[in-house]
From TrEMBL:
Designated name of the protein: RING-type domain-containing protein
Any single Pfam family the record assigns to this protein: zf-RING_5
Organism: Caenorhabditis remanei (Caenorhabditis vulgaris)
Residues in RING-type domain copies: 3-46, 71-114
InterPro entries found in the cross-reference section: E3_ubiquitin-ligase_RING, Znf_RING, Znf_RING/FYVE/PHD, Znf_RING_CS
GO MF, one example: zinc ion binding
UniProt entry keywords in alphabetical sequence: Metal-binding, Zinc, Zinc-finger
Length: 141
């Protein structure tokens, strides 16, 4: 699994090639490529980025364990188009499955990974951006 800009493999440490996710579009690139970007547009889809980017921790966990990715909320295996497809929580950039997003929206609790409470309850999961690198991992697992 390589960065699409520099073609270096993603790493699981906090070094130059750790995967960074853009929550505005769901695409991920390595840290050194993100650091060298000169504008706020995603190099893949050209969407302007407004939210801060974060480490794609679910992908880092996969690199470390090589275990099939599961949702931190319900422990279900992620799927690609089904009811456990991986969606990004925009405030903290953690990923949970679409079913958990819908459950969270119903009961207004925070992110199951970091307990971040600043979460808008009006959306359904279709409004949330997918974690595309995690989908690639699920597709190829
Ligand atoms: Zn790169
Ligand atoms: Zn993008
Ligand atoms: Zn879930
Ligand atoms: Zn979180």
């Amino acid at each position: 699994m390589d960065c699409e800009i520099c073609f270096e493999p993603f790493s699981d440490n906090l070094g130059n090639h750790v995967p960074i996710i853009f929550p505005d579009c769901g695409h991920s690139f390595c840290k050194s490529c993100v650091d060298s970007l000169e504008n706020r547009k995603c190099p893949k889809c050209r969407k302007t980025r407004f939210q801060p980017h974060e480490i794609n921790v679910e992908v880092v966990e996969f690199i470390q364990t090589n275990a099939r990715p599961v949702c931190g909320g319900c422990a279900s295996e992620y799927n690609i188009e089904g009811n456990h497809n991986p969606r990004i929580l925009p405030d903290c950039c953690h990923t949970i499955c679409s079913t958990c997003i819908d459950d969270i929206a119903d009961v207004e609790i925070g992110c199951p990974t970091c307990f971040n409470p600043n979460f808008i309850s009006l959306f359904d999961s279709e409004c949330f951006i997918k974690n595309y690198l995690l989908i690639e991992i699920v597709r190829n697992y």
